[in-house]
Give the backbone structure.
Amino acid sequence: RAGGGVGLRPPECHFCQACCRSVGGISLTPAASPCIITSRQIAMSDADLLFDGEWIDDALDREMTLPEVLPENLKTWRRDGGVDLATGKDVEHAAFVACCIATEKATEQSRLLALERHKGWSMGQQVGIVKALHHRFRFDAVTVESNQYQAMFANHFRFDEAELVPVQSYFTSGETKVDVALGLPALAIEFEHRRWKIPYGNAHTRRTVEPLIEELRLYPTPGPDYDCLMSLFFAREGRRRAFHAAAQAPVDIAVINL
């Protein structure tokens, strides 16, 4: 970190302490690094973590629980979904995560409404979770990482004409994830400015959100898959696009039949 800002060293630097530079209070790493030490050889220190523990603690609302349906006071807030699909050959062991967030446009304060995390689920089961969340919270948009599986995911919705949900794809790369304006550092800055609330008010809620909390506390320590964090990031990206259209990255948007 530099000057109280957010620090993130991308994989090229392997979390080396020797080649960090500061731009506008944000610690970044040059694209080319002479460092040849692998990241797994160096333990992560607090200075290397993207989300400060105090920011995370302040986001936890011990009076708030995850709702079963959309609360009346949030019906005017924007609702975004983020989906991190479990795909590929390791689908039996990969985690599928879907979340829903609500954001008040005037303040851009966001609140987590739901978090679903499951392992070993088929594509059909993953689609079913998104359908269920949409019935509960009525997404304004659902953002999914753009790849061949996203197209397969979208196709599952096309044969049920009961209702519509906007599904949009997000093109990710190593560069976009560490971008100060668009990537995970931007999400961390929102936590630093106390723009997030994560319900933590009862045992069920705490069990549900704990995987996300753990990932926030660890990122970018090598090892975890960070499925919950990426789901939250995708939901946040959907909200960012809606509120800041001029700054949008290229996006494919399709209205998908549920």
Q: What stands out?
A: Strands lie at 21-23, 26-28, 60-61, 78-84, 95-104, 109-119, 141-145, 164-170, 196-199, 252-257. The mean pLDDT is 79. The chain is about 30% helix and 20% strand. The CA atoms of residues 82 and 232 lie 6 Å apart.
